[in-house]
């Protein structure tokens, strides 16, 4: 049976755009040298936050903290349309973008964005859940079943669970039906409207609590490996030495940066996380899923 509907790119991603900067010359770790060669300001975008008020609410403390660490003025630029970040990078209208793993792939493929650092989150895995007492004990038993997932393009709630099912021998185009129900997937599972529900391990208990449900009514069939983190990327038109210096400073001052992120209620998922060097290969799992679901040309 046909189970996966192709989504339009504009519906898959909500990429956030930012403003422009000038090119920079090579830099080193010296503060004096950085001051001479770094841009006078950086424009900062976040892919899943629309509007200047929301940016200020969720990232103002982080913006000012990073500004102090780099010694460079940083400005927000609110998104104007869902796919603005990639062309904004290409046209030098944005310098730094904070992106989820899926959005990173778009920025890397279409704008050759350079990964700076990633946030490795504690207990960030995809899990697949069934009702307590369900005969389903293995992922392979989800063949011909209906699975609730979060939304199209979600790393933990769509792409990674799909990869787990692929690894279990299932074809996402024909072997199971996917319905995108956001966090309401757990209610659909409870009512028997779906056979399984995919979500993130670090959201699981909070979702149950918010929906008035209890853990004993459910069973986790499978927990996947640690997922790649959200990533800060830079325009490839910034000097590589400046990007390296920025990476070094962000990792050196990661405690301050993480603390500034989690100052906002919306960013509590990063609590206890750490900054690590972002490697493009860490995101190959997501590329593979897009190929399997027939969306490889999107990347």
TrEMBL record:
Family in the record: Belongs to the phosphate/phosphite/phosphonate binding protein family.
Xref: InterPro entries: PhnD
UniProt keyword annotations, A-Z: Signal
Matching Pfam families: Phosphonate-bd
Gene3D superfamilies: Periplasmic binding protein-like II
Protein name: Phosphate/phosphite/phosphonate ABC transporter substrate-binding protein
Taxonomy, superkingdom: Bacteria
